[in-house]
Amino acid sequence: MQLASRLEARYRSATTLQATFFERYSENGRVIRSEAGTAYFRRPGKMRWEYELPEKELFLVDGKTAWFYVPADHTVTRAPAKQSEDLRTPLALLAGRMKISRVCSRVELAEGEKPLGEGHAVLRCQPRGPKQDAASGVGAESVLGVSSGDAVLFEVARDTGELARLIVRQAGGIEVEFRFENWRFDPALPHAMFRFQPPAGVAIVTGELPDGKPQRN
Length: 217
What we know:
- It contains 2 helices and 12 strands; from the N terminus they run αββββββββαββββ.
- By secondary structure, the protein is mostly beta strands.
- A 12-stranded mixed sheet has the order 7-8-9-10-11-1-2-3-4-5-6-12.
């Protein structure tokens, strides 16, 4: 599909990326939480999500380990990046080989989905099943962080191919939406930004990061 190819081409050549984001987590149409901040990506396989609102949090993938740090709680949760069932991981495409066919068995226009932006289109991705990726030996589900029965939607600017929105819909009425603005391509991002050093006195917990991060009421 031409628009999917334009999306790939827009991000494939960049070594680093930066964008502001808005994230919303909903259950059965009811918004459970909304957050915002700045996301950074570096190839290969590194991401840094700095949450500013409603409170400061940090989600960081250093290529091997996923870290989630809540300064107010004085805790850090860590998990192997390839095992993290985190709903930000579809965006790991931006930090790796930008090839949608690695995670989508089929991409088509989502005719029934209304885009937020003028001149945008919404693409529906059918996630691949757990077949092993020949190059990495990693199952596609561990790359996407969703199952083959979930719905993944990309909103893309038709003229530039820039990603404006990502939606993941799961069973049980769960929906996670990411909106992006102010994309910067190849900003000067130091390698140290993608390394996590736990502050002194912070408890480190090893485990999964459900639904993007630990649940809070």
